[in-house]
User: What shape does this take?
Amino acid sequence: MRLKTRIFSAILALMTMLSAISVCAAEKAELSADSIEIIFTDVTDKRTDVLEGEAKIMVSVKGAEGSASIVQTSLKFSGDLKYKSITFLQGENNPPKCFLYTPNAALVNSRKTLMPSIISTDDSIEFSGTTDLFVLTFEGEPGDSVTLSTNDLDNTYCVIDGEDIYAEDSASETAEASDKAVKGKTATIQLTMDVVTDFAGPASSGYKSSGIEVRITSRDNEGYTIYTVLNNANISKGGHRVGSSDSSVPTFIIENTVLADDKYDIEISGIGYVPVVLKKVDFDDPIEITNEDFIPGDVDGDGEVTEDDKEFCNEVMAEGDYSEACDFNRDNKVNKYDLAVFDEVLGGGDDDDEEEEEEITVPAKVKNVVAVGGEKSVTLTWTAPDNGGAEITEYTIKYGKSKTSLTKEATSNETEAEIDELDDDTTYYFSVIATNEIGDSVASDVVSAKTNEAKEEENDEEITVPGVVTEISSTATNSSITLKWDAPEDDGGSAITQYKIKYGTTKTKLSSSKTFKDVDEDLELKISSLSSGKTYYFQIAAVNAKGTGEYSEIYTASTTGSSGGGGGGGGGGGGGGGGGATPPPVSAPTYYAVTFDIGAGTIASGSAVINVEKNAKPGSVPTVTAPAGKEFAGWSRDNGASFIDPTNVIVTANITFTAIYKDAQPAQGNEGTVTPAPTEEFTDLGNHAWAKDSIYELKSKGIINGTTATTFAPANNIKRGDFILILVRMLGITAEVAENFDDVPADSYYASAIAVAKSMGIATGYENKFRPEDTITRQDLITLAYRAFLAKGFITESADTTSLDEFADKGDITEYAVPAMSSMVGAGIIKGAEGKVNPKNNATRAEVAVMCARLLALMK
Assistant: This one.
């Protein structure tokens, strides 16, 4: 069975046209004498979709009248801003009819040149007068500028009614990055090529395109679209590929900053692949896509992979030819590795079995189900599955208040549905089934969404926090304890939404914590990675819409092992029976020497060397008098670069703390103000005077550094790994660690800090991933800081959330972050801006410095 050769001819013609898009000056001279004018317009202040630090320049053409089949612009730019993205205003990317050539951002920023193009091979695009072509977005620091200009006039032209018309004159435009604080958020998409496992590594240049494009389109702001070409280079080189180039399962991560409050449609496309489309995405969480959704093998571009596609690729390989549509692994050849994808996608079917090819089956499993809660309603969207050879006639949505009891049904003829007349402030669970003439597909994976909180109504019975959990039991292994408990008798008049569990190895320091949210299931939580033969202490509290109830009495349980324990007990204000556990034998304690190296200073009080029991803290530190002309700045560990509080260090070996001195400074006009020497000043703090004192205070203490010797980059977003490193430095936290998150490289500069934060329950991650290279939202940053300061005793937990009432956007705070945000606001650490606390905005380096300076004051 032959493929539709006309389609392949069109694709081949398109590729040939693109590769031959440049012509020399001699050829140009023989063509039409008419000319076009390229016009650049700074639209930064005219558009509502400009984020802080962005500049936008629109590119238009004048003098092109008629049907356009090719538009090519050779451009260059200079200045402090980097190219970010392009929004096309003409044409639609639907090869082989129309091809929008999107610049490769990593390559563009390395060369400072780009050549966006629009190619139409079927329905031509009508040009008249001045036609707007596209908008280029650049990014950097507010106030920085970029100058865009034509680069090569011989490669800047339109093909109008079959005739080439060139630009005769150069043009340029300068735009300045916006300083308007428009709310943005990080849109993260992870694409894992788990079927194309031999995906080619990057070229030696490090800027090789994968031929795959990601398009993000706002549903709320017309014309707001971001095109990104997937770059097959490592992230460290400005590309999108994670890990080494020869990784057996290639993974790409694409990050863009988008408008915070919009919803978006995502499309991922590439020649030879079935495009994947996701609708109504809010980017609150990273979007993960695999080859189950983005399917290789669609050679003829008809939206499905069939034996026809496989047959064509077999013929290409047998004849020694090349087709980009068959080159799924993008290594510039068609071979057995490309054909291997059909074994995965088609299941290794028999090419000669015509009856099997034409057999109609039930639809495939529905994928990419997304649920978004509304007022007494939930909106669902999903991707249409393979129809099994017959049209899908209906989708059935099963739902209920428990993931194991989906007793209600609704139907839809589209790939979306709104389920209404639901209860307020309630979590519902959903699964979608597709139906064709043969029957039903298997049910999709269950997803959940919570309806919006009920509007306050007059109620005779006041809602309070839940009662106390009293019935707790446990089972244990040598490395885990599984807690079981009953719901409290009194829910406070509002449904219990989660339970908080805090625990530790001493009754007075329950520094680790867990949150249990599956309240419709058995109340049972397994706590793993515990030490063998050790006794642990636990408290549990219930949470409802009003807040967190009182914690239970302390419950004790022991892991099995050398102590012979494994039961549990509780009661009596925190003592409790041991459940049969036998305490470990008493042995003589181990002591280590803690030395305080004072250099040229003198000790005013205390001792230079003290003996401290193993796993204890020093407790006391000598007072030091600095040598003449110097000031005592603080202690470093083993002569390290950062300051540390020795009284917070758990001693596990002999250790030395070194006194650090600095030149004595003259008295300051305002107490607490740090004025750096002129040679130490950062040059980019002009627009961030409000953060300057905090930045220099933290810099002087070795807690935070600049991005270079003279720049701090105050408006840049801070990474999750960097913030954990700052927290650990600031608090002097140390701990014995057994493991780290799966995605934290062992040799990374922040690995040790993240491992410590994990061991103490400060950083919990998700599915043992921490995403250290991701930017961090304000609510996540505040939650991490809150857990750390709670564990160190500098702040107390409170069920009172009234401190958030002054902020208009308190409803935007995700549930897990409410206690942290309310406590930190109540402590004066977080103050908000213009009546908002902006929980889901990405935190900037300047904001982090100010918050950390307030936390330092809290520690004092």
Observations:
- The chain has a mean pLDDT of 78.
- The CA atoms of residues 719 and 775 lie 4 Å apart.
- The radius of gyration is 31 Å.
